[in-house]
Every structure is written in C-alpha cells, then in structure tokens.
Design goal:
alpha/beta
Length: 338
C-alpha cells in the first residue's frame, strides 16, 4: 500500500465533494495523476529517491536531503560545499557536509537556489492552506476560466482537476522554459494537461509580459509554481494584480510558503517530502525515502481543494500552498494511522 494512501483518499474525497457542488464530480484517484508508475524508470527508494535525483546525507547535527535533478544544480555543488575541487557532486557533498550544520547548509543552498531540506524540519497537522486576502469576493461571469502557469506535477495536477470539473483551463508557458514533463514523461504530461488549451509566450519581451498580464486578468483562477521573486521580476506583484482583478483566486504553490523566511527556497517533490518528515527511519536512526516525489500528489490535491474552497467563497485571495507543509500533514496522518 502507498505510504500516502490515507492522505490521497481523504483529499480525493474532499475534491469530489467540492467539485460536485461546483460542476462535475471529479474522482481524482481515477484520473491516473496521483502517481507516476510506469512513466519513469524508478527504483526502490532508500538513501536515494526512486528517480535517483535526490539523496539523503548526514550533517554534523542531523540529516538533510538535496535534489540535483537539474544540470545547473550539479554545477553549483562546489560553490555550495565551499570547495574548489572538481569531483562527483554526490561524493563532494558526502565528504564536505559532515562538518557543517543543517541550518548552515540550507542557508547557502537558499542563496544559490538549490533544493535542499532538513529532514523533518517542517511540522504541520493540516492540509488546509492559509489564504491571504488581497482582493474582494465576487462571482465569475460565465464559465470558470483557469490560467495554469505552473509546471511539473503538483500545479498541473490542480489544473487538471479543475478542467475535469468543467472549467476552461489554459496552460500558458514561457517559450524559453517549457515544462520538462512533456519530454521526460509525455503520457503523464497528457494526463495532467490533456484537457487544457496550450499556449506559449516569451516572458522576456515587453509584448510577452503584457500578454501574460492580460491573460492573468482575464482568468478567474491562476495557478503558479514559482517563487515570489519571479513575479516581481515580471512586474506582476500580487498586490498590483488584485488591484486590477479583486475577485481573482491565485493558487500559489511553493516549497515553503509565499511569505516569510522560506519564500525564496526551492523545492521539488522528494526533498519537500523529506522536509515534512515523510520518510521512514531505520532501526539505527537513519532516514530513507518512502516513495516517488510524495510531496507532489498530496500538494496537487491540497491545491485543488484550496482553489475550490476559495472559488466557493468568491475569490479575492492568494491561496498559499507549501509543498513541505503538505508533506508534513501527510506524514502526520500516516503516523496517526499507524
């Protein structure tokens, strides 16, 4: 049985209840989007994640996870380890991190934009997401329009559920940075995005940014998976967007929350799972991964619930979905069920 089976069942039941009230009832578990079985070459998780992109290491005062799925992350490893040595990145981390604290390692990783997490550093009992009231409630005119600006798994999963409910969903991507899932797992990409209209813009041009802003203001719901700094760089700060579209629902999926010290941290499914304590422990007190990017599916379902709940209330809010908090809630539910 999946280590997050209880979380998926509970969250899917709430998705079904809310979607039935707003449109078509959605059975999220039946859509084939809550796991990537058969989509990737996965191996049994342990000290390394199932896709082998994330690994667990011991620091001087605890355990941490680091995800090196991107080429640029591997290239930044010497800077993170404060080393001039050219070495295998995993070996370099193992050799250089043992004498440093978890907090020190995470601080440097945050500065470099590396996805790293202390095992169990986030504690949370509930999947309910905080909401930031930035606008004012209002009713959408006509069919629900959703703009999905997210990538990879959790955000597109939220958009897929809203699309299955009957919303008009557009997936809008930067033409310079396309969703890598389309190439790495094309069938899974289709499951997540098959009901959506697909569109690309160059966000680096003035015309592209203007068109992006126009698309956001035309939507009732916007789903994002970038850090706050990305929207500042595009001139799309939430306060300005809500001033122009007060009834908007903005579903902001981040690693550690929209505001506060964790707002600039990067996270993916496996390291976020470790941050939330969604791991198993050996008899000798060492953590091991439990499954494949477990923070992603629970976050996707929690994001859908956050979006649906905000829609029912009339919008006007930013729904603050943090992957590490969702993983921690799933870990807490798993512990209660044990």
């Amino acid at each position: 049985m999946s280590p997050i089976a209880a979380a998926l069942k509970a969250l899917s039941a709430e998705v079904a209840r809310l979607t039935a009230a707003l449109g078509r009832r959605v059975d999220a578990l039946g859509l084939g989007i809550t796991d990537r079985a058969g989509q990737l070459k996965l191996r049994a998780p342990g000290i390394a994640s199932a896709n082998r992109a994330c690994r667990l290491f011991r620091a001087s005062d605890g355990w941490f996870a680091v995800n090196l799925a991107r080429d640029e992350d591997r290239e930044l490893t010497p800077a993170w380890m404060r080393s001039e040595r050219i070495s295998d990145p995993w070996r370099l981390i193992a050799e250089e991190s043992a004498g440093r604290t978890v907090a020190d390692l995470i601080a440097d990783a945050t500065l470099l934009g590396l996805p790293a997490a202390g095992v169990g550093e986030v504690v949370c009992e509930s999947f309910a997401a905080p909401t930031l009231p930035l606008g004012a409630p209002g009713r959408p005119a006509g069919p629900l329009r959703v703009l999905d600006l997210s990538a990879l798994w959790a955000g597109p999963m939220c958009g897929a559920i809203l699309g299955e409910m009957g919303a008009e969903v557009t997936k809008l991507e930067s033409s310079r940075r396309l969703d890598p899932t389309a190439q790495s797992t094309p069938e899974f990409f289709r499951r997540l995005n098959g009901r959506k209209s697909l569109r690309q813009l160059d966000f680096q041009t003035a015309d592209g940014r203007a068109a992006l802003r126009e698309a956001i203001l035309a939507a009732d719901v916007v789903i994002t998976s970038a850090r706050p700094r990305a929207f500042v760089g595009l001139g799309l700060e939430p306060e300005a967007i809500f001033a122009a579209k007060p009834q908007l629902t903005w579903v902001a999926i981040t690693g550690y929350g929209w505001s506060g010290r964790g707002a600039e941290r990067v996270a993916f499914g496996d390291d976020a799972a470790a941050a939330g304590g969604l791991v198993r422990w050996t008899r000798t007190g060492e953590p091991r991964f439990l499954g494949d990017a477990l923070a992603d599916p629970v976050t996707g379902l929690a994001a859908a619930i956050g979006a649906l709940s905000a829609i029912v209330a009339g919008g006007g809010v930013l729904v603050d979905i943090a992957m590490a908090r969702c993983a921690a809630a799933a870990a807490a539910l798993r512990a209660r069920a044990a």
